[in-house]
Amino acid sequence: MDRISWNHYFMAQSHLLALRSTCTRLAVGATIVRDKRIIAGGYNGSIAGGVHCIDEGCYVIDNHCVRTIHAEMNAILQCAKFGVATAGAEIYVTHFPCLACTKAIIQAGIQSVYYAKDYKNHPYAMELFEQAGVHIEKVAFDETTLDLKNEEKREYVEQLLNALKHLGVSETDLKKWNEQARQLFG
Ligand SMILES: [Zn+2]
Ligand SMILES: [Zn+2]
Q1: Which ligand has the minimum distance to the alpha carbon of residue 96?
Q2: 101 has binding-site annotation
Q3: pLDDT at position 185, please?
């Protein structure tokens, strides 16, 4: 039995949270962890009770949607709201944090940042993390990571496509299906 790693477990939680995002521009999730326990989570969305970008469209100023609170910020604020210490904690995020979140993460005493996707990684954010001695690590993670049968499904589809090829379906169809399989299985 393959046991999921801690990194993948917490990163999966962040990706699950990202599915709750209400902003159409980018879906981000963040999970704060201390001593291998999840202490808070957040996704990018409006303030509680506010209208949602997915219903009303984004409120864009200077090419940024200003309606939403970022996932990292929401997770940190959840700790503030309920009085949970963040000093020495770790944060797992789907995307590399923006400058404002970088500063909040450092100031909250979070010691490690694990992220899945590079996203406009700002050199100043890197510099601030380094100065603060925050550990930064990219964790390889995508939708296929949690599909434990991904490889079996890929092989199955490959067999079907080969059978279709021998049955003489058109090259155009084959090419299209092969491309779809490639996108599905990574
Ligand atoms: Zn928005
Ligand atoms: Zn941010």
Answers
A1: 2
A2: yes
A3: 83
